Amino acid sequence: MNAVESKTKFVSTDRRVREDRRFVVGRGRYVADIDLPGMLHVALVAAQHPAARIVSIDASRALALPGVHKVLTGAELVEAVNPLMNGLETPQVRRFPLAVGQVRYAGEWVAAVVADTRALAEDAAERVKVEYEKLGFVIDAEEAYTPQSTPVHPEHGSNVLLDKTFVWGEVERHFAEADQQLSFRVVWGRNSTVPIETFGVVASWDPWQEVLDVWASIQMPKYSDQIARSLRLPGNSIRVHQDVDVGGSYGVKRGIKHSVLVGHLARALGRPVRLIEDRLENMRAGDAHGPERIFDVDVAFNADGIVRSMKMRALDNVGAYAGRAPFQLGKPIGAIVGPYKIESVQYQAISVTTNKTVQEAVRGFGQAPTNYAIETAIDRVAETLGLDRIEIRRRNFIRHDEFPYLIPSGSTYDSGDYHTVVDKVLAHAGYDDLVAERDRLRAEGMLAGIGIAACLEPSGGNSSFEPLLNDKNTTSTWMDSCRIMVDALGTVTATVHTTSSGQGHETLVATVVGEVLQIDPDLIRIVRPDTLSSLPSNSPVGSRMAIMLGGAAFKAAEKVKAKMVAIAAHAMGVPIETANYVDGTVRTADGREMAWEAIVNMAHRQFHALPEGMDPGLASDHIMQVPTGVQLPKDDKVQMYPCHSFEFHLILVAIDPLLGKPEIRRYVIGHDCGTVINPHIVRGMTLGGIAHGLGAALLEEFAYDAEGQLLTQSFMDYLLPSSHEVPDVEIVHHCTPSPLTVLGQKGSGESGYLGSPAAISGAINDAVRPLGIHFTRLPMRISAISDAIAEAGPTMTQEEI
Amino acid sequence: MSVELKVNGRAVTVDVEPRTTLLDCVRDELGLKGTHAGCEHGVCGACTVLLDGQPTRSCLMFAVQADGYEITTIEGVAPQAGELDVIQDAFCEAHGLQCGFCTSGMILAARSLLEREASPTVEDIREAISGNICRCTGYGQIIEAIQLAAERMRGQNAPASPSLSRTEAVR
Ligand code: FES
Ligand code: FES
Q1: Which branch of life, at top level (chain B) (predicted)?
Q2: A666 has which bridge partners?
C-alpha cells in the first residue's frame, strides 16, 4: 500500500462493478437489440477469389424477390463516398466499404443486399451473380516485400506501405564491443481478439434535421469524424449513440467500412438500416484480423549476460488494405527494450499488403508480438551462456532507483520496481519447488518446462506513433473528458463520452468522483451522452481510461469541490484557505459548517449570495491532456506513452510426449499497474488477457491455403480457449504508483495478454530443450508439438516411458 | 406457422417460418433480447436457454422443435424487477463478467449445474461451463461466482453479504 491508497475511501476497495447488474439480468443493450420501425437488413455478397477483376455484377434475380430493396455495388458507392482513412500517407491504397473494380482478398464484400429481413437478404445475396477475371495474388509477407511481387494495389506500385529503419544509440559500436552475438527468427501468427459479439451497426437518416443517427458495437477513436468525412457530411450531422453496450472488443471493434456502408444506405433508402455480421462475415471480412509478424532479431551481449544492443526487423502482413494497422509497428517503439537496460536498438519496421483479410488494432497494439520477440531473445541469451533465465533478467532490469528512466527510442518510463515484483512472485510460487516439480515430471517421462516473461504495458498514450511513422501527421494529444453536474436537489451525475466494452468505465468514474467529493459512489449516476452532446474522447484504446478518463473525472470533481468551498467560505465569511471540505460539508476553523444541500441550493438559486463574479449552478467539465504528451517526434524519437505497468509471468507446463498437448500446471503472474482503482476490474482484465494470450500461443490462427482462401472461418477451426484450457491463475499484486497520474494509477486493459504468449512459448521451449527442439512460431498447435517431438526423439521418449 | 411455446412460465403463441431458429424466435418474436447470438453454429453458448432445465443452444434448434418444453431465458431468472437471484448476485459479487455478452448463457449453465449438484467441485464447474465461451474474463471470476452461489444456496436464507471474504492480492 502506498500513501495514496491508504488515504482513499473508495479507490482500491473491493466495491462491486456497477455495470454488472444490468448484464446479469440480460438487460445489456447491445446493437443487435435495437429495433427501429421500418428497419431494413443487410447481407453481403463475398468475393470467391483472393484477387480478381470484377467483370460484371448481375443483381436482377436478387431484386426480383419481393422484399428486396437494393443491391449496392462498389461502382455505385464510390460515386457517393470518400475513401476510408489511412494512417500512413498511402493515397493510392484506396479502401471503400465494397470492392471497387477489383477484389483484393477472398471474402471481400462485392455487393450489399438490403431487404426486409436478414434471412431474405441472405437468400437474395445468393442470387447475385458476379463474373470475375482472376488476377495474380500474394499471401506471404516475405514474398510481398520483394519488388517483383504482384501488387495488391497496382496504383500504389508495390506492396510496401512502410519500410523505415530507426537507429537509437550506437548500435554498431555496441555490437562490436560485445562479447557475443546471436540471431534468430520468430513468427507471430495471424490471430485476433474475436469477441463473442460480432460487429454490428444500425443507422437512421433524418432528412429534415439532416442528422444520421448511428448505434454501433464500436470501440474507435474519432469514429463519428471518420463517418462524416467519408459520407461527405458535416461533423455535426453524425450522432453516435454511446449508450450501446459493446459485447467485447479488445481493440478490434472498428467497423468503419460497415458504418459508412450502412450510413450511406440509410440515407439513400430513407429507412433505418442495420448490418449485424454473422460469424462467417466477421471472421472472413470483418476486417478485424490481428498482426501477423516475422521478427528477425540479433542481440549483442556480454559473458555476464548483460545485453548491450539489439537489432530487430519486424515484417508485418496487414492484409489487403492499409487502415490504421501499420501503426501497430509503431507503438512497441515506446517499450522496445522491454524492462531492460539495453543501450541501443536498431529497429526496422516493415508493413506490406497481401491478399489477406485486413488487419485491425488488437489488444496491445502490436506490443504482445514484440514482447514475444524480446523475451525469446533474453531466453536465448541465457541458454547460450548457460545462465538462469531469471538471473539474467535481474541483471538486465532497470533498477527501482533508476526511474524515471529514458530508453534509447525516446520514452521515459515513469516508475517501476521490477526486482521486487520478481522476488514476490518467486516467493509466492515457491520457485525451488516449482523447479523440483518440473524435474520430477521429467523423471516420470513427461516433457516439462518453466516459462518466464517480464514485460511492460505502456499505457495512456497520445498516439505519438502516428507522427513518428507519418511526418505529415501532427497529433500530439489524445484527450479524454468528463462532465459533472450537481442538480438542484443535490444529486450528482457524471458523464462518459465513449462506448465501453466491458472495462467498467461507469464504475471507474463513479469511484473517482465519489473519492474526490467524498460521497458514496453508488449515489452517483453515470450517463453517456451521444456524440453531439459530448466532450472529446478518444475511446478506450491503449490502456488509457484509468489514466485519462479517471484523470478527467478527478479533475472535474476537484473543480466542483473548489466551487463548493468558495461558495461556503464566502457565505460564512471566512477566507477560502481556512475552509475545509469534509464528506460533502464545508467547515470553518472556528467550528461552523455549511452542509452539501445548503451549498447546492445557494449555487442553484441564490445568485445574490454567491461570491462576486461566480457563475451560478454547480457543474464542471474537464478535458484532460495526456500527462506526457506535449512534443512531436524529434530525431526519430518520441515520448510514446506516459505510464508503464509491469508484469512478470512464471508458469509450469507439462506435455505428455505421446499426445503433444501442453498442459499448464501452474500460472503465477506478478502485476504492477500502480494504484488500482477497482481491484475486480483489474483482476478480470489480467485473467482475461492471459486467457487471450493462451489462445494466441496455442490455439488461434487465421490460416490460409496456398490458393489464398481462409481455412479457419468458424469456431470449429478457429479455436477459442474454453474453461478446460484456461488454468487457474494466481496474481501477485504490487503497487508502484505513477508519479504522473492523479492517484498513481497506470493502465491495465492489456495486462496478461502482453506477456502470456511469451511465457507459454518459453515454457514449451524449456520442455522440449532436451530434445534439441526450438519452437519459433505461434501458435504452437498440438499437432506441431507432437510432430516435432515424434521427429526429434522417438527412441528417447519411448525409453523414458 | 403457428407454434405454442412456454417461456418463463408463460404460454405464448408465435407465428414463425419453419426455418426460424429458437434463438431468432426468442429475440425477435418474443422480444427477449437477453439471449445472444455469438456464432450461430453451436460452439460459443451465448444463445443458451434452458429446456426443461437443460442448457440448450437455441441457435441449433428450430422454434417449432421447442413445442412442449419449458423454456427458461435469462429474463426468467430474477425473482422480480430490481431483485437478483442468488446466482446473478454472486456474479455481481465476484465480477464474473465484463462485457456481459456471454453472461446470460453462463448464468443459465450455472443454474442448471447448481440445480443438480449442490456442492460442485471446480472441475464440475469447468465442465458445466465448458460449452460457453467467454472472451473477457478467462473464466476465473466466473468459477468463483458459481462457487459463491453454491455456497450461498447451500446456506439459503443467509443474507447476501459483501463480507464474504475474497482476498484480492493473492489467491
Ligand atoms: S450462438 Fe448458439 S452456440 Fe454460438
Ligand atoms: S463477459 Fe464478455 S464474453 Fe464473457
Answers
A1: Bacteria
A2: A652
For residue B81, name the pLDDT band (cuts at 50, 70, 90).
very high
Q: Is residue A513 part of a domain?
A: yes
Cell of A10: 473508495
N-terminal to C-terminal alpha carbon distance within chain A: 50
For residue A195, report the distance from its CA to the centre of ligand 1, in Å: 13
* CB-based burial, A82-100: b 16+ in 10 Å, e otherwise: ebbebbbebeebbbbbbbb
Q: Residue A444 to residues A275, A449, A654, A797, A800: CA-CA distances in angstroms?
A: 55, 13, 11, 11, 8
Same domain, A540 and A666: no
Instruction: Provide the whole-model pTM.
Output: 0.96
Our answer on whether the CB atom of B46 is closer than 6 Å to any ligand 2 atom is: no
Ligand 1 proximity of B43 Cβ (cutoff 6 Å): yes
- All residues of chain A having their beta carbon less than 8 Å from the beta carbon of residue B142 are 723
User: Which positions of chain A have pLDDT values less than 50?
Assistant: 1-5, 795-801
Percent of the residues in chain A that have a pLDDT greater than 90, as a whole number: 97
Q: Are residues B19 and B67 in the same domain?
A: yes
B6 and B72 share one domain: yes
Residue in B41, B139, B168 nearest the CB of A679: B168
Range of the domain at B53: 2-76
- How many helices, marked H, and strands, marked E, lie in chain B? 5, 5
Task: Supply the pLDDT for residue A629.
Answer: 75
Among B26, B59, B134, residue to substitute to test ligand 1 (most atoms within 8 Å of Cβ): B59
Query: How far apart (Å, rounded) are the C-alpha atoms in residues A748 and A543?
Result: 6
ipTM: 0.96
Ligand nearest to C-alpha B133 = 2
φ, ψ dihedrals at B103, nearest 5°? -65, -40
- B37 domain-assigned: yes
